[in-house]
Structures are given as C-alpha cells and as structure tokens.
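Could you help me review a protein record that somebody else here produced? Here is the record exactly as it was handed to me:
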Amino acid sequence: MLGNVYDDMGDSVNALKTYKAGLQKFPNSGGLHLETGNYYFVKQDYNSALKYYELGIAKEPTHPSNYFRAAQIFLTMTEEEVWGMIYGEIFMNLEPNTERTQAMSKWLHDTYKSEIKIVNDTFATVSFSKTATMLAGSKILPFNSEYEIGFLTNVPGIGTINLESMCSLRSSFVKNFFENNKFKDYPVAILDYNYKIMKAGHFDAYNHWLLSQGDKDAFKKWKDGHKTEFDKFAEWFKANRISLNSKNVFLRENFGG
C-alpha cells in the first residue's frame, strides 16, 4: 500500500524501493512481485517486468494478476505467443468473470486467428513461437515446438479459421497430446485440466467460453443453440476449478523457454 501511495504521487523511485523492501520481508508475495513488475512495465522494460511476474507466479501460483501481465506481454508485444497462451488460459481459470477475463479471451482468440494460416487444403502454417524448431525424430522438443507441431498436425482440412474451427483444433490438440502420452514429457497443469474437462464432456463449451470475446456474435449464436450444454459446463466449472501449487505451477523456463 505504501508503494502504491508513492506511485500515485509520481514518486516511482521510492515506490520501487518500497516494493523491494517488501519482497525482502515477504519473498513469497505474489502481489509484491506484481507491483515490482508493474514498475518496470510502465518503464517499458518488459524483460525486467517478466522476471518479476514469473517469479510471482513461482512464489504464489494462485495469484492471477502475474499471469495476466505476463500473458499480456507475450501475446501483444512478442513473437513468442505460446507462453502467453498458456499463462493467459491459466489466468482465465483463476479469474473467470472480470473485464480482464474478457480482454484475455479476445487476445487468445486473436492469437489463434492471426498465427494459424491456411494456404490451401493440404498446407498450413502455425507460428506461436519464433524460436520453435521443427525437428524430426524421437528427441524431446522444447514445449514451444511441440505445441506448434501439435496444432499444425490438425490444421489441414479444417477449412477456415473461425471460432468453431479454433475450438475443434484445441480439442484435437488436447486429445492427441494425451493419447500420444506427451503429458509425461510436458506435465503442463492447464493441459491436464483441459483433459479433465474433456473427459467430463464439457470441453467444447469450455473452448467456446475461453475464446468467446474474439467473436461475440459467433459465441452468442453457438450458446443460443447449446444452452443446456453451456449451463451444465458452467455448473461443473464452478465445482471443479483448476488446482495450482508449487509442484505443478507452469514456468516458461522449465519448458525450454
């Protein structure tokens, strides 16, 4: 609070000193990591901001705001969108009903739409990470590469990239990810949760909700025709929220990022 007061007064130097003093006393505070990251975010020092946001995620995995800010940077300011896609989806599960949730939904939708390109019926490109490498063979790839390949495999024949095809692609990706035993190499909690939703029969509704703000008209049309399905998902979702802790927290550095 003291740091925020300094910020409001325009005294960013003492605000930063206060946040860092707070971190020495409360090193596991997600909020203090967030505020320190925000100091650098305002200064447009995004690498330093990410450092604190991701430290905040590691220290307090259930604090949603660090995921939001980290995802915002990756999705809107870099060509490494894959990390923002994971952080952003986790954020929406931790904070499912706010204006920030709506913003994140649109960013996720727009990322899928802009980075998946269909050239013709047999050829497409997926670009979620500039540093992804498409290596053949049995070698375990960095997660960003595996994520791109997983989507690229299912794009041919999809027709066009819209809300329906995005939901279909996400379903195919998660289904193949677990049926091909990828989870043992990439134990990503949000994907494990995706599979849990899929087995419960609610993944199509979940995907429509996740990406709804990128095409509100298409989502409304789908929801109007699937009211019972969506209501059942919403009820299940309230009772079965994702569980995050220090053991299953997603950190980019642990997955080749």
Remarks:
- The first strand starts at residue 116 and ends at 118.
